[in-house]
Design brief:
This protein has about 290 residues and is α/β, with parallel strands linked by helices. It has 9 helices and 9 strands. It has a single domain, classed as Rossmann fold, CATH 3.40.50. Helix content is about 30%, strand content about 20%. Strands 1-2-4-3-5-6-7-8-9 form a 9-stranded mixed β-sheet, with helices on both faces. It starts with a helix and ends in a 5-residue tail after the last strand.
């Protein structure tokens, strides 16, 4: 837990990867409002000649306190390079707000995407959520706790899958003072833990983590996978023995893409799950260790 408290804020350092990210092969619609009465905006990355493409709504990390969507151009390009429409949304952060406000913002971004993405070449029936670090925590809650999308007039049936990179899903006890304030009061702590919402009715999950992660311990993904699998839900895990917290997301960027097959595994999951019916039940936990 201490490593979670100390390290998630470093996620935004990956913005330097944007310098080496190409501007060709996709178009970007920027600063689209998705929440009335708010300054929150999102960007849509559409691959060339896209029509009825799978859609990935991505939530960046930053310990629920830091980050802006512009820092993650490299993620938008990576997703678009595989023929998918990428949506990267901002959300409110601590200390301006506390849990669950940022998850509610994430649900509104998904609602906007579901209602509007056809105008940008995406198919709202092939909708995925994806996140890194604290963004993966938010994506997991959307997939596992139905109340967030239900509050927007939807349901988890909107989602064909959730992709989590190095996410904190099981991080009690919460001891860091700022996180206790962010997720408090203490009687609400369990509501912040995706693992407690494993009910077997989730959209398929792909949980990717690095064994060398010293920021969000790999047990978060393993524990959530076990809980979802035990409940009969669809879940797959991929554990990389030699990747740390930031390289999991950085390895999908154009300059580092050859270092591992993280993006290949994300693409395979999306291609396989995009046309499946909602609430597909998987065989349990599938762990795929990969030597790099």
């Amino acid at each position: 837990m201490m490593m979670l408290a100390l390290g998630l804020s470093a996620c935004a350092g990956t913005a330097a990867l944007n310098t080496f990210t190409p501007d060709s092969g996709y178009t970007v619609a920027t600063n689209l409002p998705f929440k009335s009465g708010s300054s929150l905006r999102l960007d849509v990355y559409t691959p060339a000649e896209s029509a009825n493409a799978p859609v990935v709504v991505f939530f960046y990390g930053g310990r629920w306190t830091d980050g802006i969507k512009e820092d993650f151009k490299f993620v938008g390009e990576a997703i678009a390079s595989r023929g998918y429409v990428a949506v990267i949304a901002d959300y409110r952060k601590y200390p301006a707000v506390r849990f669950p406000a940022f998850v509610e913002d994430a649900a509104k971004a998904v609602k906007w995407t579901h209602d509007n993405i056809a105008q940008y070449g995406g198919d709202p029936g092939k909708l995925f959520v994806m996140g890194h670090s604290s963004g993966a925590h938010m994506a997991a809650l959307l997939a596992l706790d139905g109340k967030y999308l239900e509050a927007e007039g939807g349901s988890r049936n909107w989602l064909r899958g959730m992709i989590g990179l190095a996410g904190p899903y099981d991080f009690m006890p919460i001891t860091a003072p700022d996180l206790r304030d962010l997720f408090g009061p203490p009687e609400r702590f369990e509501q912040s833990q995706p693992i407690f919402f494993a009910d077997g009715r989730n959209p398929p999950l792909l949980l990717i983590h690095g064994e060398d992660d010293d920021v969000v311990w790999v047990k978060n993904s393993r524990n959530l996978a076990q809980a979802v699998g035990n409940a009969g839900g669809a879940v797959e895990t991929i554990i990389y023995p030699k990747l740390g917290h930031r390289l999991i997301i950085a390895n999908i960027a154009r300059p580092l893409r050859g270092r591992s097959d993280v993006l290949d595994n994300i693409s395979e999951f999306i291609n396989r799950r995009a046309n499946e019916a909602p609430r597909v039940r998987g065989p349990g936990v599938q762990t795929t260790p990969i030597d790099l």
